[in-house]
Design a protein that fits this description.
single chain, alpha/beta, Aldehyde Dehydrogenase, Chain A, domain 1, Aldehyde Dehydrogenase, Chain A, domain 2, 7-stranded mixed sheet, 6-stranded mixed sheet, 41% helix, 22% strand
């Protein structure tokens, strides 16, 4: 079968078409990566650090080209695409220092001479399965810590982002990364399954259903696995908040990149007297969002699912406050949309739809807001908008989300901090920051005792 990657803003523009290599090609890539790993880890911290730094330099040198490719292949607005490229470079530079980090500790023996050491060592081959929405940043925040700690990498990108992943691998090779240390294998479910079935450590970002299957398969093999599966994220707005600023932040988190971020806001919870002013301000803010901020969704199926969900909610009694339509133009566009009075059992109130659509709720007080925000099977990020430090701290203590942002959009992520959610949003250890270094290594305890009498 052929993998075809097309421009979401102009579906007739085919970015890339490649043949699926099949499961055997994936297994062969893993075997080559496993052979290369011995030399990669033996090269030492200095070599690994320098290589990752050169990759960052290569990304910087091709920043304009990479941003244009992101825009073309996945429909990301240009400003966000440029931001992703800059962030990608920063990720590689951050992890370029990681090879020099302490890899263990020295302990005293319980009695007598000797040394007790703890060390963290690489697993071997990291099998990475990445989504299309951050086609350079997410593969990089998986690959860079894996490589820094001495693993080799086999990356299977989402079919929709194949060109971006292959270009990243080309830049890594041009920066002097040894052969078979960083390999990209295009493909779909067959190739992904083969990678999970052969790699020594697995990191996955994608849909909940596929992610759960990945976790089961890796766990059955006894292989460490982490999975990021999205979230149904809420924004809480208190009466004392700067309503205009809150509406601006929420509109950006709902409609930025057409809501195609796992940290996007899909539920807005207005507390008490905040409801009326917030409703008015948010409708105005979303109505003013243009293509330079929103852009198209990834494909026809995604567009149709969103449109059908909005129509179904309205039929069930919801009130359409703004948007809901499809502009008459080429490309897979959906208007930024806000609904109210959505029945609690409707899928829009319970499921992640990955588009520029949000539901507005009104509640009486902070307790009710937190209860509603926590009433989700997958909680990744929540934003809280208030001028009260007491309220912000209380909310941070009681919200279930893995990431809580106060007076900021839910969709912001700091690459040097741990990333992950709670409940069904995540499985395994956190991504990003120093937490990733732990995930891509395994702890060993080494006892060194004298070999003879002293």
């Amino acid at each position: 079968m052929t993998i075809t990657s097309s421009n979401p803003a102009d579906p007739a523009d085919v970015v890339l078409a490649v043949e699926e290599p099949g499961a055997e090609a994936v297994r062969s890539a893993v075997l080559r990566a496993r052979a290369a790993q011995r030399g990669w880890v033996a090269a030492g911290a200095g070599a690994r650090s320098a290589a990752l730094g050169r990759i960052a330099d290569a990304i910087d040198a091709h920043a304009g080209e990479l941003a244009a490719l992101i825009v073309r292949e996945v429909g990301k607005p240009l400003a966000e695409a440029r931001g992703e490229v800059a962030r990608t470079s920063a990720i590689w530079r951050y992890y370029a220092q990681a090879p020099y980090a302490a890899a263990g500790e020295v302990h005293e023996t319980a009695g007598g001479p000797g040394l007790l050491l703890t060390r963290r060592r690489p697993h071997g081959v990291a099998g990475l399965i990445a989504p299309w929405n951050f086609p350079l940043a997410i593969p990089s925040w998986k690959a860079a810590p894996a490589l820094a700690t001495g693993n080799t990498v086999v990356l299977k990108p989402a079919p929709e982002a194949t060109a971006c992943a292959l270009r990243l691998a080309e830049l890594a090779s041009s920066a002097g990364l040894p052969e078979d240390v960083f390999t990209v294998v295009p493909g779909g479910a067959e190739e992904g399954s083969a990678l999970v079935g052969t790699a020594d450590v697995v990191s996955f970002t994608g849909s909940t259903g596929v992610g759960r299957a990945v976790v089961r398969a890796a766990t059955e093999r006894g292989v460490p696995v982490q999975a990021e599966l999205g979230g149904l994220n809420a924004a809480l707005v208190l009466p004392d908040a700067d309503i205009a600023l809150a509406a601006e932040h929420i509109a950006a988190a709902v409609a930025g990149y057409a809501g195609q971020k796992c940290t996007a806001t899909s539920r807005v919870i207005a507390v008490g007297a905040a409801h009326g002013p917030l409703r008015e301000a948010l409708v105005k803010a979303l109505a003013s969002v243009d293509d330079a901020v929103c852009g198209p969704v990834i494909g026809a199926a995604a567009r149709d699912r969103l449109v059908d969900a909005v129509g179904s909610a309205v039929e069930a009694g919801a009130t359409l406050l703004v948007g809901g339509g499809v502009p008459e133009r080429a490309g897979w566009y959906v208007e930024p949309t806000l609904l109210a009075d959505v029945p609690a059992e409707h899928p829009l109130a319970r499921e992640e739809f990955f588009g520029p659509v949000a539901v507005l709720h009104a509640v009486a007080d902070l307790d009710a807001a937190i209860e509603l925000a926590n009433d989700t099977p997958h909680s990744l990020a929540t934003s809280v908008h208030t001028r009260s430090l007491d309220v912000a701290l209380a909310a941070a203590d009681r919200l279930d989300a893995g990431m809580i942002r106060v007076n900021a959009p839910s969709s912001g992520v700091d690459f040097h901090l741990p990333f992950g959610g709670t409940k069904g949003a995540s499985h395994g250890e956190r991504e990003q920051g120093r937490a990733a270094l732990d995930f891509y290594t395994v702890g060993r305890t080494v006892s060194v005792l004298p070999g003879g009498s002293l």
